[in-house]
Amino acid sequence: MNSTACTPNPVASTSALAEENAWLREQVKHLQHQLDWFKKQLFGPKSEKRVYDPAEQGELFQPADAP
User: Fold this and answer.
1) What are the CA-CA distances from residue 14 to residues 9, 10, 54, 62 (Å)?
2) Where are the alpha helices (DSSP H) in the chain?
3) Which of 17, 31, 32, 49 has minimal CB crowding within 10 Å?
4) CA-to-CA distance for 19 and 30, rounded, in angstroms?
5) Is 61 helix (H, G, I), strand (E, B) or coil?
6) Residue 66 above 60 pLDDT?
7) What b/e sequence results for 29-42 when a residue is b if at least 16 CB atoms lie within 10 Å of its CB, and e otherwise?
């Protein structure tokens, strides 16, 4: 029996693991970016809460007509 056929090549497996590690790190960065965006959308400031009152817009009621 040849014992070298059963033993994986440590150099080849090291480079494969390094490639996989780099790919997984990129995936983590991408997913972290997505998570940050979703958190901002869910918990960030909302445009509905902002007060927007332009000076050129007139009043709905005149002071005499106001309840």
Assistant:
1) 9, 6, 64, 78
2) 10-43
3) 49
4) 17
5) coil
6) no
7) eeeeeeeeeeeeee
CA-CA distance, 35 to 48, in Å (whole number)? 23
Q: Which amino acid is at 65?
A: D
* Angle value at C-alpha 45, between 43 and 46, nearest 5 degrees: 100
Q: Is the pLDDT reported for residue 19 higher than 70? A: yes
* The model's pTM: 0.51
Q: Could you give the CA distance from residue 40 to residue 38 in angstroms, rounded to a whole number?
A: 5
Average pLDDT, integer, range 22-26? 98
Higher pLDDT, 53 or 16: 16
Q: Taking the mean position of all CA atoms in its chain, how far away is CA 34?
A: 2
**Region 7-20 average pLDDT:** 82
